Amino acid sequence: MNALVPLPVLLPLCATGLSLAFGTRLKQFQRFISVAVLTAVLGLSVTLMIAADMDGPLTVHLGDFAPPLGITLVADRLSGLMLTVSSAVTLCVLVYSLGQGMADRDEETPVAVFHPAYLILVAGVSCTFLAGDLVNLYVGFEIMLVASFVLLTLGGTGSRVRAGSTYVIISLFSSMLFLTAIAMTYAATGTANFAQLAGRLAALPLGVQTLIQAMLLTVFAIKAAVFPLAAWLPDSYPTAPAPVTAVFAGLLTKVGVYCMLRTETLLFPGNRLGDLLMAAALASMVVGILGAVAQTDLKRLLSFTLISHIGYMVFGIGLATREAYGGAIVYVVHHITVQTTLFLVAGLIERRGGTTELTRLGGIAKAAPFLAVLFFVPAMNLAGIPPLSGFIGKLGLMRAGVADGSVWAWILVTGSTATSLLTLYVMAKVWNLAFWRAAPPGQALDGTVLESDEEDDSDADEGPDRMRGTGDEGVRLRHQPAGRAVAATLHGHAVTTTTKLPRPMTWATAATVALGLAFTVFAGPLTSYTDRSAAELIARSPYIEAVLGR
């Protein structure tokens, strides 16, 4: 079984080579490779999750080189669960993107790079979850960074290049800080292997330990978009195509949260920086949700709710108890699915209504009732309405806070409750403006093509379709036969409204909704599994013994 551990990383990388070799001429073959490989990765992830739960952590030393020289990959309960959820989500997003590309007839657009970049992103995420040392964790981050920049800038529009540049600059800064922390750790301990560091870091002076811990937390907080290190996210994610934004919002920030969980439990037990983490959690919740309240664009609104709800996960990490870790893991799994779903729904709303600007939407519940259901369920899940999985995760975290009884814990319980109520308000606002009220006079009609016109924007005339202050100053509307697109939204330039949404996009979104509901239906087994994961994280010995063979 240990031999299966590297495959979630190796399969997407091998498929990337095949996709690049044959995809430019055989696009159907390229699509088949991507779907087949991600399906295989999902099956492998489920197998590893079950095996890790039954038999303990699975390890493999590549090349049979023992630590600290060799590359160690480890699959325990936490990494197995994260792999499974991320694989399911990336597969659904891939099907969504295929449906969008086929509906927009992307065969006339040179977009063969999307599938290789997406597969590399999946490989990077898998590498991060399985990494058994700091160096390979850094490698996983860099793999994701390279793929992310390609995906963010698909289409080459000015807004996407600007957003991608911001993202890369922030990511490169965090990478430099990460390398510095790795160098300091190796100089002080002689290893970068997690299992060995778990024993050697404790022998260092307290000041050195705290410095290394603070540097690593800063790196991971940037990746996770924890306030005040989250300013880059609302400007970077909304400009990307819907499937790219969905997988970024659902997965990439949770990679940072996963790394915080892993290092705080395995390398730095004792919760020395717990108060700092809880302060950051509270700030993320409050600032994020207040930012969401102020937004009128759906994608930006969801970006701020993403920052806000990262605070719940950091809350659990800051408490550092078994119940808190279990609640945080439940919330991570829930949030990956729900946030991805909401961004996919935002893409469907844009295709149906021609924009994500809420002031120009309306009447969708009557015109597209199934789309309304696809939004309503994950929206209530995000708000934490009982008995959905969002409520289960929040309840677990609040119970852990009450049991802790400290001043910070009670403050976070109060902040969590207020944030949940404001999230419900924000989701109700979206529902009222986009779905419930009648369609406004300026809403795009069926078959309207919205085409970016950034190069010639200064010469364009203002008119009823180009309204100042709406965020659509750079958008020109013209009418075409329904279903016809000038260029695919996935790859830049345009989106065509249509009353009949592409089936692959709709059913892929429905699958992510169903996955979120599955966490509610199987809440008992899920919480039992996360409790065992939390106990394993706190114990540390199963992980260390599996890697070092003691």
What do these coordinates show?
There is one protein chain. By secondary structure, this protein is mainly alpha-helical. Helix content is 69%, strand content 4%. It has 20 helices and five strands. Strands 4-3-5 form a three-stranded antiparallel beta sheet, with helices on one face. The chain has a two-stranded antiparallel ribbon with strand order 1-2. Helix 2 packs antiparallel against helix 3 (77-103), helix 10 runs antiparallel to helix 13 (322-353) and helix 13 packs antiparallel against helix 16. Residues 451-462 have a biased composition (Acidic residues). Pfam families: Proton_antipo_M. Residues 446-475 are annotated as: Disordered.
* Rg from Cα: 23 Å
The major pleated sheet works out as: 3 strands, antiparallel
Mean residue pLDDT: 83
**How much strand content do the residues show?**
under 5%
Structural classification: mainly alpha
Separation, N- and C-terminal Cα atoms: 19 Å
Silhouette: globular
> Helix proportion of residues, in percent?
55-70%
The number of E-state strands comes to 5
Low-confidence region ranges: 445-494
What is the element string, with H for helices and E for strands?
HHEEHHHHHHHHHHHHHHHEEEHHH
Number of helices in the DSSP assignment: 20
| Major beta sheet, strand line-up | 4-3-5
